Amino acid sequence: MQFLRPIIRLVLVAAAAVLLSACPSLAERAGLPPSVERAEALERSGDAAGAARVYEDLAAQNSGAERNAFLLRAARGYLTAHHAEDAARVLAITEGPLSAEQSTERALSNVELAIERGQGKEASQQLAAIAEARSAAQAARYRARRSRPAAPRAGSPAQHRRRSGRTSRCCCRSPAARQLPPSACATVS
């Protein structure tokens, strides 16, 4: 009986090793490879920030016009998710010559970024400098933006200040601080 114990232990260790080798690693399960289909699925499910991160990953894997196209899609996603600083960061890293459509997309995104930041006057000036877009989707965005005043989007920090009756800007700049109620932030006149 004593000679069976080491054999049983060996069989159990081997069985455990076989079972563990059949499992995918945690690294493989944690992050799926970026793909346009995955980003679009995240957009459809309402996770605009998640889609933007995937587009950023795709941009890192590409160069030239494709890289810029993915960066511009990431910026739109971040703007949809009200992540103005991420959108500004992504817009700033577009490089090289942009196509006419990409230039218009960047200009429209910069207008929306200014609105998101509560800079209505600057947004109006930027919008006035844009020639009407050529693509149908951009033309629709352009006309929609021209037809309504440069008010911040629903849920933006500037709109929150207006709803709460505050006219001064909040000095809280970090994303975590923006989640605080207005009374927790100091105001700047």
Mean pLDDT: 77
Distance between the termini: 86 Å
Supply the CATH superfamily name of the largest domain: Tetratricopeptide repeat domain
Number of helices: 11
Poorly predicted spans: 25-30, 160-189
Label the CATH architecture of the largest domain. Alpha Horseshoe
| Lateral arrangement of strands in the main beta sheet | 1-2
Structural Rg: 25 Å
Helices and strands, in order, run as HHHHHHHHHHEHE
The total domain count is: 2
Structural class: mainly alpha
Largest sheet: 2 strands, antiparallel
The CATH topology assignment of the largest domain is Serine Threonine Protein Phosphatase 5, Tetratricopeptide repeat
CATH class of the largest domain: Mainly Alpha
Strand element count: 2
Gist of the model:
With 189 residues, the protein is mainly alpha-helical. The protein is 64% helix and 2% strand.
Question: Could you please describe the fold and organization of this structure?
Answer:
There is one protein chain. With 189 residues, the protein is mainly α. The chain has 2 domains: 35-153, Tetratricopeptide repeat domain (Serine Threonine Protein Phosphatase 5, Tetratricopeptide repeat); 155-189, no CATH class. It has 11 helices and 2 strands, in the order ααααααααααβαβ. The chain has helices at residues 4-22, 26-30, 36-44, 48-60, 64-80, 84-92, 100-116, 120-128, 136-147, 157-163, 175-178; strands spanning 169-170, 187-188. Helix 3 packs antiparallel against helix 4 and helix 5 (64-80) packs parallel to helix 7. The chain is elongated, with a radius of gyration of 25 Å. The N and C termini lie far apart (86 Å).
